[in-house]
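Late entry, FE2/S2 (inorganic) cluster complex.
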Amino acid sequence: MSKTEYILNVNGKSKNIVSSEDKPLLYILRDEFKLTGTKLGCGLEQCGSCAVLVDGCKILSCNRPAIEFVDKEITTIEGISKNDVLNEIQQSFKEFNAAQCGYCTSGIIVSLTELFNKKETPGKKEIIESLSGQLCRCGSHASVLKAINNVIKLRKNND
Amino acid sequence: MINKYKINTGASVKDYNKVSDWLSFEIPNKIKISSGKVDIGQHISTTLALICSRELGIDINSIFVNKLNTDTTPNEGITASSLSVPNSGTAIRSASIIFKKNFLDFAAKSLNLNINKINLEDGVAKDPNSNASISFWDFSKTEEFLKLSIPEIIEIEDQKNFDHSSHVETKFINSIVKGEYKFLHDLRFDDMLHARIVRPPSYFHKFLSINNAIHKYLKDHNLKLYIKNSFIAVLGNDEFEVIKSLNRIKNSIEWEQVNKLANDKIFNLIDQNSKDSLIVKRGGEAFNENIPEIKSYNNVDHKTLTSEFNKPYLMHGSIGPSASCSFYKNGKFIIYSHSQAIYALKSILSNAFNLKEKNITLHFMPGAGCYGHNGADDVTYEAALLSKEFENKYVLLKWTREDENCWEPYGSASKNKLTATLDKNNKIIYWSSEAYSDTYLTRPMVGKLEYFVSQRFINNDFKKYKVEPRTGAHMGIHRNLDPIYNFKETRLVKNLVHDLPLRTSALRTLGAFANTTATETFMDDLCIEANIDPFEFRINHLDDNRAIDLLNDLKIQMEKDEPTENGFRGIAFSRYKNSASYCAVGVELTVSDNVEVELKQAWISVDAGEVAFKEGIEAQVEGGFIQAASWSLYEQVNFDNNEILSKDWDGYKIIEFDNIPLINTSVINRVGFPYLGVGEAVAGPTGASISNALKRALGERIKSMPFSQENITKQLLG
Ligand code: FES
Ligand code: FES
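Prediction complete; structure with ligand written out below:
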């Protein structure tokens, strides 16, 4: 397949990319932007490890060609904290040690960032929907749920 | 009151008895801990740092754990069997105690002061009356420090009951939440080759030929193909091109199927196939002795019950597929691996490649959680082999999702058959328990290269190797077969079944998950028969006070929480290997009209000896609970005569966020008792408590895992 040239905007930085047309966003992030926080878990859109935000909405990056995302704002886990200040979800994950091996954690935080950007205090159903397809094998779920409740509690207290 | 007690400094100190083997002070104001146990998400690094921090009164942030590699860190063998804190934790604690004691003597002498007058803060001993001071870092430069050795037994006075209530941030969480934590998969070297294995359809496919047209494609895409007999790999600088080529290459290969996978009625095969049967005696060792018949008792004064429990093949199913990176030049290997057994791999690779051990260095780098012997060792061997063929280049080999699902060694399918007799007083006077399964122990070993999955393809050697039964206490198949209860007479039999279809090895808890589930579900059947409360019935058969305390603790916890409408509860308990942590689990679940099981609440009580890191223990047991709940409710490796069918997450369902109950964990702190490993204690009681709650919900014991809609309906409809 022939190579194509395009510009991608990731975490506020634009970069000229030359790649095959079908190269998925995940590999561009890891190879060209050297952003390895987004993980390859299945390459089949089944596990959620590769989740990133595109214009604020979660997408799975392991299969969809990067050229689909020209002219969009792409945010990876590395771009979620601003100037080294963690967002409230990352902060809460820290306070509850909400990761074991941590391989699944980027995707989970990305999903929750989308959710909490859209909903001030999401309900149980919305949380579960947001995390549907985000697999974790270490069983960090219980601590993740505690961290989520903490974010909700803090937001409610700030009302 | 001053308590005195003794610490047995343990197995690791036997081999590394110098304080300097474990602690070093090269960087001012920092302490470096060395351990041979790898951090695979079980928070061992944080636990060890915390132990050292408490003993030496140094802030945990000033303590870091040495990066593990086979050249410089202590060889503590494999990171498995819940031994990391018992071995490494005890060693670090002992080293810290000896260090501090000797430091204080040294400081007293140097400052010419009575020890009691010394003011010790942040590793600096001060004379409160002058400005004179001396630090840990000063002491570490002395000859005396280098000579400090750790005795087998240490006596401690004045045991401090450390505060476990405040939050301790785990070592890597900050970089994990920022996406900066580096996994092996993220390695990058100049001109590095990415590699993937071109897998055949099954264990029994031999390479015949490849369509020559593929070579043009490979050339156009800057890819290299490596073929050795039936072992085939593709390599290139661009990872995506390598992945993309896989299907095309597979489609251009002709394979010969030299054998079929045995038919898929696995529980029939377990009954029919040849086996080695051994007697397991109290204490948990197995012996090659005559197996007695099951005793029978009259029905007048006794009640005899039987039970059977089936568990399918389960996969480790790591979220990040196994990976390894290897570099070979001038007869030397540098290898990055996330194996639990990097020291063993060094010896195995030295033997396999006919190189001196000193020419092989393995660096541990994190992978995704592995939960036992998954593909981590195989991929390391394969990466080493490829790097030797592509000298002077780093080769980063990653398994695909399909590789991980189909080629890892599974936790074996198994069957348990039990018979027990109650006397008139509802005491169990006879207990027969038989475990049947394939081996759980094919971890790599020197001289056993066939344990690497690719070896058969490298040599075109498709014969089946027979494994020998292991006899040590609580080894694989008979782990926790010996019940902790005080039954008057037991008949325990381990059956190693041969010629079963799928590749198996160590999956978290080995045989203990099935054996504990079988034991504790049968205990429940018996207590229902006896019409006695499940806590009371168990306690009636226990002499061990820690076990009794634990059950009482669980009972109190469960009574505190309101029952859910239409919820059913079950409990179960065990002590892992009858020597590690005690763990009791309570579960409450509902079953919907269309037979879907929803977990509502769970309670865990755990006694892991003296608490080293409370949040670490909670994370381990809660994570273990969730994984075992997933095994119990959803998981099963599917296969047919030709191939494994559970190739991806659609073909192998695991638990998700929609079925995580509210979990309450109670950690009993046994100050002054040895640290007990905790990573595996919860699994068996989880499986059994779910089954026990289900029995109360359905009125019937579901005999086969997973307790899925399909299996439950099948059994209920007969
Ligand atoms: S890697 Fe994209 S969903 Fe699994
Ligand atoms: S924390 Fe290991 S896979 Fe989720």
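The mean pLDDT of chain B is 94. Will revisit in the morning.
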